[in-house]
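Q: For a teaching session next week I want to show students how multiple molecules come together into a single three-dimensional assembly. I've collected the sequence lines for a complex. Could you give me the predicted structure tokens for the whole thing so I can convert them for display?
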Amino acid sequence: MTKLSRRQFGMASFALAGVSLAGALPAAAQQLKGGRLRVAVLSELANYDPQQLSTVNFHVIKNLYDSLIEYTPEGKPEPSLATEWTIAPDKTSVTLKLRSGVTFHSGTPFKADSVLATLQKGADPKRGKNVFATMSIVKDWSAPDDSTVTINFKAPVPERQMLDLLQFLIPIDPKGIDTVETVPAGTGPYTLVNRAVGQSLTLKANPKYWREKQPVVQDLVFTVFSEDASASAALESGAVDIVYNGSSRSAVRLKNAGFQVFAGPGPLVQVFRINSTRGPFRNKAFRQAFNHLMDRASILRVGYAGMGKVVALPWAPASPAYDESYNATYAYDLEKAKKLIAASGLSADELKSWKLLVNGSDEPSVAISQIVQGSLQKIGIPVELDMRQGAEYVTALLGGDFAATFGAVGNVQKFPSRVATNSIYRTSGNPVLKDPHPHPDYVAAIARVDGASGGAAEVKAAYDNLNKVMVEEAFGIPTNSYDVGLIVASDKIGGVTLDIDNLFIARTIGFK
Amino acid sequence: MTGYVLRRLFQMLPVLLIASFAIFAMIYAVPGGPVAVIVGENAGPEEIAAAIQRYGLDRPMVVQYADWLGRALTGDFGLSLHSRQPVLQLIGERLPATLQLALAAIFVALVIGIPVAIASAVKPNSWLDRLLSGWSALALGVPTFWLGILLILLFAVELRWLPSASRHVPFWESPVDALRSLALPAITLGTYVSGILARFLRASLIGEARADYVRTARAKGVPENRIVGLHIMRNALLPFVTIVGLMMANFIGGAVVTEAVFTYPGLGRLLIQAISTRDYPLLQGCILVILVAYMLINLTVDMLYAWIDPRIEYR
Amino acid sequence: MTGTLARLKGLLRRLLARRGAALGLGFLALVALAAGFATVLPFDPLSQSVAASLLPPSAENWFGTDELGRGILARVIYGARTSLVTAVGAVVIAALVGVPIGLAAGFYGDWRDSLLMRCIDVLLALPNILFAMALIAVLGRSQGAALIAVGIAGIPGFARIARAQVMALRQLDFVTAVRGFGGSPGYIMFRTILPNALSPLVVQAIVLASIAILLEAALAFLGVGVPPPTPSWGEMLRTGKSYLYEAPTYAVLPGIVLTLTILSLDTIGRTLTAILDRDETDASGETIGGRR
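A: Of course. Below is the structure for the complete assembly, covering every listed component.
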């Protein structure tokens, strides 16, 4: 599953170069044939802005655009539109060399001005969308010449956080940056042909694409399906070649039926979110009991067909802060939970004086909420489920109007402080916990991770501290990771490349 | 006749207005507005405030409704809050799918219902009549969603002949694909309607067969097949047209359950989605289309009555 | 009212004399008994065992187990409670609101009739299921909400039948006689006309009960019925449908019980109609359901 594109780069000069993966190329990948690739997707895209990294846009971004750098599925940085990057010894700036000979779809040559315009958009609270939060560490930027860009930071920044920023930055054609929501303006392997809203999106190969022999297929057609079952049925009947972002359950079934399944390194983590400003949840021991109340194995099995991993911390295995030992220490154990509840000193009435909010539109949430309800019942705490659909649920979530609820978090495979982009883990302006943040230890732990720009030992200590504080404060109880952006493909398909964020990459895919 | 039609159309207006306002008010009163769905759960307060202002959601409910109504009267049904697509376009994509399914279901119902009704009406209370009446009861009693599940189990999971989930394929574009996609939902919905049809048609056939004019015709020696064909069938057509019309009217929005079983992209599910995301313009558009369709079909049925039975007069 | 009671008893006896209706009544009695005495039966619809999930039917679990390892038979039995409570509640609501509307509309017959019937038209113009869903969106998911939503959907049926009965009865001798003695409109409607219009209303109640059970199941199937973990037949079909490949019996068995319940009610309703029609024919010499 390595990147074909690695072949053409010299391994020469980048400062943090990863291990060469070129030798690991699958032999079959080189015999792939082109043609017309039909992909089923389960959501209509919101717009073509590459800075809006929401799941609904995942299938188009990396096909219309290129990032400054890429990560391998293992998390190693690789050059893309930036051919090398040099981090200053004091870790307050990074200097990029830009690839030459690349043009945008409009014909504009790719130069430093586009990177500057992209940085400017990202730093604007009104236009920066998902990139904005990541730009908070950036002080300013400059371009000494057309092929060099320097980004200066407000303080010393950990390497990994800089790399995350570079991987997040997707150069936009300066001429088209104001209309990028409606007209794509990238350098990517495909160009837009036609969009039938709510139905399909047609792309064709960019003839001037800079990666050799890519893209493999000339025509790329996305068909929008409103339901997982319809998309699976279309794959089984041969009406599409690939289903992107279907459910784990369908993937398991289709795998057994002989289809190929590819799961990327950027899963989501399901988190039992606790509003620690309310009722019995203000009690720390009671919250901590939930570390042991989660029957994680059952939750993973029933909710996600066993695809994923049980986790006690909000990290995917690819995260630098991932720590396996917590899964054993905070395993499902009703006796330990009972002891903590006894230690809480809460009365039986207080213990059951809350409802578990459930996203009724999400099938796995309904099942796993019932599992938690069952576990609570076993230790004598009967609670009701408060089922809400669609807008009503999201409104409650957005306003922090709940006692506890399941909700998945993303950005769990990146730099650890990125977890704070999810509402429940936000350190300021947290919509659930409000200001001032009721868990100052957690806020301090995130700040310590952000400030750990020294040696490996310092970084590790900061991660360990964050992990410890998270289970101590216990306002978010992770249960399991699960796959988003799953790729289920017919057996004719080869050359699938996995993206660190599980975005869909079509350029290497072809027919066997 | 024209006067009658105009009067009927005019009478529709208050019902339309009341129903559309009532539903709007009902959904508006519900906790949870459209903003949350638009901005997403990780949005900050600035973004939320901007969205509320951008979509005019901070205005009083009555003002929002009046604004919508004013535009709607000029033919502007606005954009869906959620997908930012014109409401009319979204409905325009679903309506043909809904109509295609409704017609296919009615076709299935006629193919099953008419022979069943005639066969059982020929000799009322015979063993055949009882058997077929039992069948009608079954067709009416089996919940459509369960029948749908059984059909999927048999034809999609076990035999793998047909897809377990349907898409809308316009019939004139690809008849084979359209039929494959329509077969199971049309059978599901059609079976139910065939039960109703068979029951009513049987009752009216038997009723007509006992009517005075048939006795007179028999006494005059008119051949039996002529009596059945010309007199009985013609008069039995009346309730028949009503049922078919009512069913059509109902399917425009009311086939949601069948649509849900087969994940069919019909109008009913679009409306449910609009309720769930509090997409007010889309909700209003869907309700309006469903109500107008219901009323127009009813009017058509009444006019067909007049054509079939000239004894009916319009006051 | 004793006369009315005796008449209903007589009806019941005649129903039992018919094979189809007797079978239907028998099945309904079984369902009602199971629902009523569910708590004394050795079934727990809530006890989970994920390790034993999605098992096929066996001696231990007659209907197999669901995705959380709960016994499907236990959930079908407890689900009968949800269905029956909804049916009874909905019929009561629909009758309490619909019958007075119909009586008043038919009795006065003037602008009040037009106004009331226009309101009923509005209710009729939107498909039941959509109206019920909109209402549940407002009330939130609960047993009460399901019951009210289904009940309101049943109002037009009662109103129309009550109205038709009043129109047929109000010019008859005994009614004009009471009116002549100075009986108040309320007295005439509820004490004179209503008892004589009871039979078709009873049939309507049975018809509505079957519609209510079906509608409740449909709402649950669409995901807006009584919230889990409370068992409901429609909810079981909904969840079962997503496990068609892993556990095909999951969605099939609860559906059989649901279908038999509806068929039973339907058979009873039709038999009753036939019996009442015959009474009418005997009394007046012509079929009431016959065509013009």
